[in-house]
Hints:
It contains 2 helices and no strands. It is mainly alpha-helical. The radius of gyration is 27 Å and the shape is rod-shaped.
Amino acid sequence: xxxxxxxxxxxxxxxxxxxxxxxxxxxxxxxxxxxxxxxxxxxxxxxxxxxxxxxxxxxxxxxxxxxxxxxxx
Length: 73
């Protein structure tokens, strides 16, 4: 290290920075891939008033239902 010039030290530092960034990037990609593999279910559907009880009240134990109420027009 003592024999390296300033330019060589800067280059060595840049290489270390790149390695850290690359490692972080690989970890982040792995996290994102793990999240995308998680089991998820559900969909967005329109239901009529007649279907409400079946689709919402009888959805099942532990099933969350999110409603977006709107009126056409």
